[in-house]
Write a structure and sequence with these properties.
With 253 residues, the protein is of the alpha/beta class. The chain is built from 10 helices and 9 strands. The strands form 2 sheets. Strands 1-2-3-4-6-9 form a 6-stranded mixed beta sheet, sandwiched between helices.
């Protein structure tokens, strides 16, 4: 049985965790995810990346057998490589979370741009309870939740439910378990009708100002707008189509 299922359609790619019973990720699985993501760099027709899972867990985190001192560097290199690849690809990402997303599973789900969760989903970073901390959550959570809530969740290792995650802004919407696929499909359709190239640059602009003061952030975003967005064929087509009162025909260029 494949521990990860990779799927590609005309406009999006999907990564499905399939390692029962709780979809823990080992080094081999993470390296496979990185290889798949690296293969998307020149595939402009892929506008969106979806992470989902088989079974009752999204993911309970990393395989502790690979967290041994002699393997932990390789583990972190593979795990952090996923986030670096996602940032470099600049494709919008969706996490479809059915059941608990804990530890590394929580980091991956909440790093995604959009999160659709079922009512039985749970989120938590329990690493502190085994004597470590979650590196990606330590970086990302302060921006998502603010310092106080980040400190509370990471220092206690508490797990929260889907509704609280929604209130905190970790999740975009909560649906019944049997509605998850339909809710994700509906969101995908609303995104992929847009130009793939414009989607990528928009995502780059949304993250370009992170950690910068406002003046420097404006310069970064303005550079993306003027020097990368405006020369696109799709930008010209979109503006022309608006003036001509018709639907644009995207070339994803």
């Amino acid at each position: 049985m494949e521990t990860i299922i990779f799927e590609k359609s005309e406009h999006y790619a999907r990564i499905v965790f399939n390692r029962p019973p709780v979809n823990v990720m080992n080094i081999e699985m993470m390296q496979a995810v990185n290889k798949f993501l690296e293969g998307l760099h020149n595939q402009d027709h892929v506008k969106l990346i979806i992470f989902s899972s088989a079974g009752k867990y999204f993911s309970a985190g990393v395989d502790m057998a690979d967290h041994a001192p002699q393997k932990v560097f390789e583990l972190l290199e593979a795990f952090h490589g996923i986030f670096l690849n996602l940032r470099e690809l600049a494709r919008p990402t969706i996490a479809a979370v059915n059941g608990p997303a804990l530890g590394a599973g929580c980091e991956l789900a909440t790093f995604c741009d959009l999160v659709v969760a079922t009512e039985n989903a749970k989120f938590g970073q329990p690493e502190i309870r085994v004597g470590v901390f979650p590196p990606i959550a330590a970086i990302v959570f302060p921006h998502l939740l603010g310092k106080k809530k980040t400190m509370e969740l990471i220092l206690t290792g508490d797990t929260i439910g889907a509704q609280e995650a929604l209130t905190l802004g970790l999740v975009n919407r909560v649906v019944a378990s049997d509605k998850l696929d339909a809710a994700v499909d509906e969101l995908v359709k609303r995104i992929i009708v847009n130009s793939g190239s414009v989607l990528q640059l928009t995502k780059r602009a949304l993250v370009a100002g992170e950690g910068l003061n406002f003046q420097d952030a404006v310069k970064k975003v303005q550079d993306i707008y003027l020097n990368h967005l405006m020369p696109l064929e799709d930008t010209s087509e979109g503006l022309k189509a608006f003036l001509e009162m018709r639907s644009p025909v995207w070339k994803d260029k």
